[in-house]
Design a protein that fits this description.
Layout (H helix, E strand, L loop, with lengths): L1 E6 L19 E6 L5 E6 L10 H16 L4 E9 L7 H14 L7 E6 L9 H15 L1 H5 L3 E4 L4 H18 L5 H8 L8 H27 L1
Helix pairs in contact: 2-7
Length: 224
């Protein structure tokens, strides 16, 4: 059984520039539950990678999912979002849209929306974190939560991490097996990655950037 961990975005390090591209790779970690059952935690690459396009990252995630599906049952998806983020940035909002397209509505009840970095707030500014959590749950995550996903706090401890995984496994026990939308589209319908819902979302972003660039070129030519 496998629980997949999807970061909302890749951390950026502006203090130094690596000599070689540091490619994040998928990693599997064993987890033994209270009942003694072994579960595998799969950490996937995140979007907004410095050295790889989002299309490439999506291709790698899709390939990992398809390969593992042949050998391991997927129990759920954990989506990580830092509560320290002051607002929902454009990249985080786009990643949330991609998450919806990868999972599909039928898999929402196997999805855990997990806020991290609660340990960064002391008693004096705890109200700030609570307000951000309310905004996430009501505004940005409302649709997913209304369709069965759960929200969990990760407080930066091993016990908290075990609780997060345990909550996902309870969801699996309650709802049984499921199929991600990207699995449905690629395996059952036989679509190419670029023709899936997630692939089309990324292609749309590329077309928008190309259109903006073309408008700038046209404006520059008119001024000349």
């Amino acid at each position: 059984m496998c629980v997949t961990i999807l970061p909302s975005n890749q951390p950026q390090n502006s203090s130094s520039r690596p000599k070689k591209p540091a490619r994040a790779k998928a990693k599997l970690y064993p987890f033994i539950g209270p009942d003694g059952r072994r579960t595998w935690l799969l950490e996937t690459p995140g979007f907004d990678d410095t050295f790889r396009s989002d299309v490439r990252v999506l291709h790698e995630i899709a390939a990992i999912f398809i390969q593992l599906r042949q050998h391991i049952k997927m129990a759920g998806i954990i989506y990580l979002h830092p509560i320290t983020d002051v607002r929902m940035r454009g990249s985080a909002l786009r990643n949330l849209t991609l998450l919806k397209n990868v999972c599909g509505e039928a898999a929402y009840n196997h999805l855990a929306l997990v806020t991290t970095k609660w340990e960064c707030f002391g008693d004096g500014d705890r109200d700030i974190a609570l307000q951000r959590e309310i905004e996430l749950e009501n505004n940005w995550w409302g649709e997913i939560r209304n369709r069965g996903s759960i929200t969990v706090r990760h407080r930066g401890t091993a016990d908290s991490a075990r609780d997060v995984v345990g909550r996902v496994l309870v969801q699996y026990s309650n709802h049984g097996r499921f199929l991600l939308r990207i699995h449905e589209e690629m395996i059952v319908q036989g679509l190419k990655l670029e023709d899936t819902s997630a692939g089309k979302e990324l292609t749309k972003d590329v077309r928008q950037v190309q259109a903006q660039y073309q408008r700038l070129l046209d404006e520059a030519e008119e001024k000349v």
